[in-house]
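ERR on first pass: missing label on line 2. Operator R.T. fixed the label and resubmitted. Corrected input:
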Amino acid sequence: MMDSSSPQPIALALTGLVKRFGPKIAVDNLHLRVRSGCLFGLVGPNGAGKTTTLSMATGLLRPDAGQAVVLGHDVWSDPAAAKALIGVLPDGMRLFDRLTGAELLRYVGLLRRVPLSDIVSRSTELLEALGLAADASTLVVEYSAGMTKKIGLACALIHAPRLIILDEPFESVDPVSGEHIRAILRGYVNSGGTVVLSSHVMELVESLCDELAVVAEGRVVAAGTLDQVRAGSSLQQRFLDLVGYTAAAEEALSWLRSSSGSS
Amino acid sequence: MVAIIVRLKLTLLRNALRRSVWRMVGLIFGLVYALGVVLMAVVGLIALRWTSIELTADVTVLAFALLTLGWLLLSLLVFGIDETIDPSRFALLPVRARDIMPGLLVSGLVGSTGIATALVAFGLVLTWARTPAPAMAAVVVLPIGVATCFLLSRAGTAAFSSVLSSRRFRDFAFVGLALLGMSIGIGANLIGALVGSDFQGLRVVLAKVAAAAGWSPFGWAWAVPADVAQGRWLVAGLRLVLAVGFAVVLWLVWQHYLDRRLTEPVEASRRTGRIRGGTVIERLYPATPAGGVAARTLRYWRRDPRYVAGIAGFLIGPVILMVVQVSNPGGQRLVAAFAPAVLCWLLGSSLAQDLSYDGSALWLHATTGMRGADDRVGRVLSTLTVFAPLVVLLIIAALVVSGDWTLWVSVVAVSVTLGLTSLGVGSYVGSLWQWPAPPPGSNPFAKGQSGGLPALAAFGVTSFATLVLSLPTVALVIASAWYGALAWLALAVGIVVGLIVLWQGIVRGGAMLDRRWPEVLSAVSER
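pass 2 clean. output:
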């Protein structure tokens, strides 16, 4: 799986993506290649353009320039074929939350043209695996933030996609469920699937991903295998170097220190 | 604190206007409209100076009591309250309710409704400025009355929404308020018919109603200048005390709920339990993308209060029409027979706002690569499932009420052509433009729950285009009054034209969605 000598097909190729919001350039000529069968992490500080990039790769946001190609199908010129291959979990978007968990999965399955018998068996398995079986007939609007993330993940998986794109999949998920999700993603990648996930938790990316890219100010500033990007130091330190972190001066926020406080 | 909060409100308003052209247009429309109403009211109040003191007293007391009641009812039923400054946002700051209440009061009045009310109330001073005493009294009650208007809307909605904080109650409340609106409409119509028949009775009725209004909490403050003008000093004093007392009570009620909101800002109690598994809905439609959309939207017609309120809203018009025409001795039975057509005519407007109601959840439709036409077909199917039985029942009721069964061909022709055309036009308009709508279950009394100007525009365009496209059928039905056989031709033409429009609406609307999913998504989620 980690053998990079045998050339594997590219699951996701982003070429020269550009997105502007008014005067602000959110994504600035971004290039990225993700091999098939790879668990790929996209890391970057807040506002680096991670979500914008993933939105353009999944057909949610039209790029101003550039291409997004999924397993040979262009997301923007051949959307139906490309979208059939992707499973998506966006961040910060609502679900059809007046449906129960089971109804939502069935709905996604129908939209994805999954055969009815498969929808039934797969949703039972997914709900079981993600620890949602007991809440299958509770409205999604009443789910906690972590449960909502998990049902969203189930929605991304139900049509057995070749590539899954997850925006902050571990946010507000408890450690136990997090471990379940890791196991699911690992198993999926080992069987030849491809995962692209974004995160800003370095430890998580370090322990889970095969390859990663660091994004800052809408550009890829480093990409490759974990060891290539780390280049000898810790990922955390390397990341801080790449995005240009400088420690605050000694006297900054001095009023906040209770020892020197006047009141 | 007052200055800070008022400045905050103005800043928020300015930023909101910068972000959205719709809001700017809405504000300008609102201002022009408010200006017109204020001008008319003030001119009317000044004109009262040339009438008797008694007439002025009755008219002003009744009008201002209604204005005050309107603040309460309209904020509960129609507009909601202006939550530009949401008190729960202060929850993390070290302030108590009483610290921010003066600021919220003033900033709440800084807006077209508040300013308009204050200006109209100033008209009361103008109309009583005949002798110094009542003019002085009017000046005194002006701030009390205006503050009462505002406090009523705040205390009323706060009390109501705390009762309704659970989702289930909220759903009921929506229907209940819609029914209340319906009965007010019918009641007003009946009173109008009653009074209109006897002009002399009008003056007597006015005096009685005004007297009642003057002794209701809504009229206490406004009746004081009238009492002074008529030399009833004792009554004036009593009402002034009552008015001040009422305002103080409202202030305390508002403070109570505000304090609660500052400590428990999270609304909506969670956990209403499991949903009984209904597989009926799933078996109703085929297991296709369109069938999935139909089943999902049908569930929303039941579970999303905005849709539940929609059903009630659509039924109000035809029911009022039928009740009024039948209960009136001079009513037109013919009009009652065609009342179901009004419901059919409105059907498409729900399709026109469906996508906006779905909000950012539409990412699912955008990423699955489903065909836009499937989305359109599904929504048409569920709308038909909800309304087709209602239309049939309404047609039967209308024919019974009108007592003329021979009209059935014409009624069915008009209803079918309007219904199908409306669904087609709605399918197209719905994909044409969308706007950000508040999510289901957000504070039902917050402003903009109804979607504001873009929703109104979508409604207007849909119903106008529907009417134009249905004209051939309607013309044939009118002509059938002379040549009865034309009704059958109208039925045939109505079905054919309706189906063509529906088909075209689905195909063209769907194709537009296929091209524009990302744009739709950004339109519904833009804030």
